[in-house]
Design brief:
207 residues; mainly alpha; 8 helices
């Protein structure tokens, strides 16, 4: 009976380990895809290609590819129905700040090129924070609240752009600001993924 209990305990640990490893990998996947598309569009703009619809297509491609790979990764990970539903709502909460920033706020303010080049960054931060607070609270598989912490870090670092917003930025400065936001996103995602990966090791191997 003791061996059966240990085997069952090991199976639960491996399931939780796999869950968190995939979670860590998800940060890498989405971070690389969306950042690559953003850098690609910035490069096109420097070459003189500045149609706004292009970035929308590139972001849709990044989201589609990321969503497909993400779905494939989670296909064989059994999830509690309640947890799965909370994450579905979490995705809606993640998207909500983008809708506010890109469709609602422009009706009340006169957005500049600078606004559109970096507003995705604080929107991402608030989206991750909202989704994390809602979904991670009841997730018994997750070792640490990485989404909440990541969202908070992005919101906090968004304050870097406040001094720039008061100036009439040039086109080069607009591109540079976007690249700065992309680089900070990659750095924060890297820290998040690495931290979660090493935390996951402790589930199976201990401290």
């Amino acid at each position: 009976m003791e061996d059966i209990r240990k085997l069952g305990d090991l199976a639960l640990k491996l399931e939780r380990y796999r869950y968190n490893i995939i979670s860590a990998l998800s940060w890498v996947i989405f971070g690389m895809l969306f950042s690559a598309m953003s850098i690609l569009y910035s490069s096109l703009m420097l070459f003189g290609v500045r149609e706004y619809w292009i970035i929308m297509v590139l972001m849709a491609v990044a989201g589609g590819v990321g969503g497909y790979v993400y779905g494939r990764l989670w296909k064989y990970v059994p999830l509690n129905k309640d947890i799965e539903m909370r994450w579905r709502v979490g995705i809606i909460l993640l998207i909500a700040p983008f809708i506010v920033s890109y469709t609602l706020l422009p009706f009340f303010i006169t957005p500049s090129q600078f606004y559109f080049s970096i507003v995705w960054y604080p929107s991402l931060g608030f989206g991750l924070l909202l989704a994390g607070i809602y979904a991670e609270r009841k997730d018994k598989y997750l070792i640490t609240k990485t989404m909440s912490y990541t969202g908070f870090a992005i919101v906090l670092t968004s304050t870097i752009f406040l001094p720039l917003s008061s100036f009439n930025t040039t086109f080069t400065e607009v591109i540079a600001s976007n690249m700065l936001a992309v680089s900070m996103t990659l750095l924060i995602y890297f820290v998040t993924a690495t931290y979660l990966f090493f935390k996951a090791q402790r589930v199976v191997y201990g401290a």
